[in-house]
Amino acid sequence: MSEVLSIVLGGGKGTRLFPLTQARAKPAVPFGGKYRLVDIPISNCINASLRQIYVLTQFNSASLNLHLAQTYIFDTFSKGFVEILAAEQTFEHTSWFEGTADAIRKNFIHFRTQDPSYYLILSGDQLYRMNLRDFIKRHQDSGAAITIACTTVSREEASQLGILKVNKSGNITEFLEKPGPDRDIADYRAPQELKRDKSGRDEYLASMGIYVFNAAAMEECLANELTDFGKEIIPQSLNKLKVNAYIFNGYWEDIGTIRSFYEANLELTTLKPRFDIYDEAMPIYTHVRALPPSKMNFSNMNQSIAAEGCIITNASISNSIVGVRTTIESGASLNGVICMGADYYETEEHKLLNEERRVPNVGIGKGSIIKGAIIDKNACIGEGCRIGIDNITREDGNYGHYYIIDGIIVIPKNTILYPGTAI
Known about the structure:
By secondary structure, the protein is an alpha/beta fold. The protein contains ten helices and 29 strands. The protein has helices spanning 39-47, 62-71, 100-105, 108-111, 132-142, 155-158, 215-221, 229-237, 258-267, 348-357, and strands spanning 4-9, 30-31, 35-36, 52-57, 81-86, 118-123, 126-128, 146-153, 162-166, 172-177, 204-214, 243-247, 252-254, 295-297, 300-302, 305-306, 311-313, 316-318, 321-322, 327-328, 333-339, 363-364, 369-375, 380-381, 386-387, 397-398, 403-405, 408-411, 416-417.
């Protein structure tokens, strides 16, 4: 589908995912033990034979750029590519991206060289698996200028999303951005024919932030200074263009907060996760690492995931994710923990140097007990640490070497917790 140009929006500073975004772009945040968030939309594209992909970003893009360069390498005959377009100064534009639409507008100079017939706009921080070929075909068959992917949500969920008013034919007639819980939006209820839940409870159609634009329509919609698709471009387009809804009935999660990130990760460990990473027909692609299989020595793992290259010794792990190259020492216990792993193995010489400096090795030290936490990459958790275990007061905030957000303890990347630390 060479006439389709796919654009993944890398987002802004990712403040709601801080401190996971302290040193990386939001799409580069590790997910599921071995992936990055950006792997989700790119994999959806590849599975639909969409191989001309740009990723737009402007904050902390170094790790994202490295991941994409090492991962998505197409052969020279396919004319496929995955490239980052970071905010840049030109003679026409000297400012940062000021919104989703502004990011597209400022990169038309690059997009036009591909001469696309359609623009597919995707978000870099959502978890879903969609048949994008069907999405685009439905758009083409409808004769619409714009098609918006949407999913049914409850009234409570609707408060923080863009809500669409859709007629029985699937045409969008009105758009309402993030109505508060006190606003009356009864007129926006989805037609019964389009509802996923046939029980009769109120359901609304929420925009997923996934769009298909005819190329000419995209040029027309952005021939102004408006900066955001949801707040400005889409509402204005309804008055002059045919805009259709594409109803998506699968699992979809917006990974916008620490709580949603934590819960979406741990749901992968359930018996029947709604997002199935074991679907061979639609795989999730990521960087291929030459790592050995994980090794479990006298350990107990229950409803957990361990990525490749881990060494786990005499440990108890429950309802947790153990990321690549994680070392867990004897007597450690993890419950409800996302451990992102490590970027490297420490050599024996390095470990001896750590011992001289009285610094813990990378990984989880002997006898440490951790519950309800996110341990970012390369963290050094010393022996006998107690994280989320003791009956002490824990309030959200920045505590220097760790954070508590939405009740979840977050240990940032490269943090050192000395032996006996209690959080």
